[in-house]
Amino acid sequence: MLENGDKISIGETILRFDLLDEIDREYQRQIHRLISHDDLTGLLSSRSFFSELRREAGRATAENRPFCVLMMDGDNFKLVNDTYGHLTGSKTIEEIGFAIMTNLRSGDAAARFGGDEFAAFLLDADLAQAVVAAERIRATIEEYQFSIVRQGKSKETHHITVSIGVSSFPTDSSDPIELVEMADSALYRAKHDGRNSVAVYSELPAQSAEIILPSRRG
Q: What ranges do the domains of the chain cover?
């Protein structure tokens, strides 16, 4: 019988057996969440995102399934802080994270990389499907009424847009780190093309071109 504190050696891995009551278990869950998630948005941290992405890449390789990576960045976000202050800036980051999550499916994952930069990967999605999802996120954020935080003022709102880059596994790369870099390159292309748009690392097939809607620039 194992007792509290016993250690089990499996190859080079050592496991510790701990008996936890409900309070201890909840404490451990909260600590894990603080470590693995961004405290402002509740999305994954960048470290947790890469861990999940590597796991998904291995699973997708074994099962011959596609998935896509999205890199997202607020357009001219510095103007939000300069115009409305950092409290509004933080609230805007929180609301962008919420808008992203409401457009993802169960099993997809999203992360905040820092500042106004976000990432996501979409399970069992080819490039055309990912562009549809990215365009849905872009349009939701463009139309969203973001909160302005001002003490003693009536509820006011402002608008901001995002640019999104998309890469595809395994078409663009089978390496998860390269996929993020490729999506990041596509993101900068979207910025260069005028912001508030979706760009893909490689061109979509001609029959799927109509999926990309015209950019509505802010």
A: 1-36, 41-211
Q: What is the pLDDT of residues 77-108, one digit of tens each?
A: 999 999 999 999 999 999 999 999 999 998 89
Please choose, from the candidates 177, 176, 180, 174, the residue with its C-alpha nearest in 3D space to the C-alpha of residue 118.
180
Round to whole Å and give the CA distance between 138 and 196.
7
Element (H, E) at 70: strand 67-74
Strand 117-123 relative to strand 67-74, pairing: antiparallel
Counting Cβ atoms within 10 Å, is residue 58 exposed (0-12), middle (13-18) or buried (19+)?
A: exposed
Model pLDDT for residues 120-145, shown as the tens digit of each residue: 999 999 999 999 999 999 999 999 99
Q: Any idea which architecture 41-211 has in CATH? A: 2-Layer Sandwich (3.30)
